[in-house]
Amino acid sequence: MEEQVNRLVGKTWAKFLSTPPNARLMIAISGIPGSGKTSLAGTMTERVNQLYAREHPGLPPISTCVPMDGYHLTRAQLAAMPDPEHAFARRGAAFTFDPDKFLTLVKTLREELMPKTKTVYAPSFDHAVKDPVENDIPILPTSRVIFFEGNYLSLNKEPWKNAAELMDELWFVEVDFETARKRLIRRHVRAGIAKDEAEADKRVRENDLVNGREIVDCRMDVQEIVISKEDPAWEH
């Protein structure tokens, strides 16, 4: 994995250097649940900022990461659906997100950077209360390299694909389903989503991997496929 990351850091840095100063470099990293996309996005953000700090000590970081988790529908919105029980059971499926709201963010960040450009705020997700937190992730005018990460960022269905088409690059983290299943069981138990491994495995098979099949089968063409192997550092 480290060799892949080093190559992607070099590629991203070169693309940033060729990006006009009034524009952002925007990269969307997708993959099935448990593929390692969150870890990759965080690592890329950190490495790019390290490179920039060496060249420009004392200046604000140039890169930031925007997770798609903040675009979950709230529990109140799920409860208002025609079949709330099904909606809660399938939370994490594409229909339990707000892609139009995400598309609005992407369009805003795609606008030309100007002296009057203000900080844009994206929502985060509070796992303790199990709901999004509005305006929690600041995206400064100085944030010129944006890594988005989420399950459906290369899904070939509107309006997801409309957001994808505004990106400079789409990356996909590929993992075999059995590796993802084991990672997700550990994660669900650790996070309190399931009380034990048996309950976690049921949720993984009936929800996460069902979503994963749609993510794989309906994937758009991407510029990079990153292979995720069994490694504790790449479980997210």
Please describe what this structure looks like.
With 236 residues, the protein is an alpha/beta fold. It has one domain (2-225): 3-Layer(aba) Sandwich (Rossmann fold). The protein has helices spanning 2-17, 37-55, 75-79, 84-89, 99-110, 160-164, 177-191, 197-217; strands at 25-31, 63-67, 120-126, 131-139, 145-149, 169-174, 224-227. The strands form two sheets. Strands 2-5-1-6-7 form a five-stranded parallel β-sheet. A two-stranded antiparallel ribbon has the order 3-4. β3 and β4 (131-139) form a beta hairpin. The protein is globular. The two termini are 14 Å apart.
Which percent range fits the helix content? 40-55%
CATH architecture: 3-Layer(aba) Sandwich
Count of distinct structural domains: 1
Strand fraction equals 15-25%
- The backbone outline, from C-alpha atoms, is globular
CATH topology: Rossmann fold
- Say which CATH homologous superfamily is assigned: P-loop containing nucleotide triphosphate hydrolases
The main sheet orders its strands as 2-5-1-6-7
What does the oligomeric state look like here?
single chain
Low-confidence stretches: none
Biggest sheet layout: 5 strands, parallel
Mean of the pLDDT scores?
Answer: 94
User: How many beta-strand segments?
Assistant: 7
Measured on Cα atoms, how large is the radius of gyration?
18 Å
